[in-house]
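In the current project phase, work has continued on tokenised descriptions of protein folds. One protein thus recorded appears below exactly as we store it.

——
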Amino acid sequence: MKHLWLPWYWPTWALFGLGWCVARLPLGLQYIVGRLIARMFFFLVPRRKAIIRVNLQLAFPELTTVQRDELARRTIDEFSSSMVDTLFVWFRGVHTLLERVNISGLEQLRHREHSQGTILLGAHFASLDLCGTAVSYCSPFQITYRDIKNPVANYFAVSRRRRAYEKLYLATELKTVVNELRNGKTVWIATDQDMGTRKATCFAPFFGVKVSTITTPFRLARLTGARIVLMAHSRNNEERTWDVKFHPIELSKLAAPECYVADATNVNRVIEQVIRSQPAQYFWVHRRFKTMANGQRRDYRFKEFKSRD
């Protein structure tokens, strides 16, 4: 813990101090301040805005340049609102917002046959921490995670999430996850991150582009007999409420390894359908299309009319 106070981490502490202050403001004012901070950040760090624009160009080629620019602007605003939601939950808790979170299909997590576990697939939709914490408050579950490179940010993320969920496991602790699933537990696993060409990945279509998709959840399901359920969530900005829905995923009947590609394709299709209903409320700031099917990395420096391959 002492090393976190080294001088080069002071700017990160200052940012979290600012976040603590913002979380104390009335909710409406929090969103206004968060939007101003986010717009300033993306102005000062144009590389991040370029990532959003490249992602949108690949995902929505049918839109005009003006339409995509407007969608990029709304994406930044929605991103800022999600960050505000996260800071609120981390520094004030979810209890005062529970009545604003509408959860549909919670029985998907509670209905099990014998000791059957559940793999709860997660994707980076709006307000992930807020909605995840609200669901865990009603039906506790465990989560897997990957360390954040900045140790101060990682400290806040891990310590706050330990309060919200039953247990936390590094994504590499698969033996423990297998045991928990066999004991009938529910374990959340992120399914929409680009993991390159690692062994536990395949390339499956996502908005018409083949993307690196992890196959670990499908392998775990077949190994343990666990069910797979996708959790989707969105924010209603007018009413300042949140909606959470669960989508049961049926596994392919094909033999390995073809079954994993089929499963990944099916999950990516469901995620895409959810995104299309609220395209600005997806985490387009991460490089979802980074790894191409030929193994090369995509150039994320923005250029209009970039090819989709």
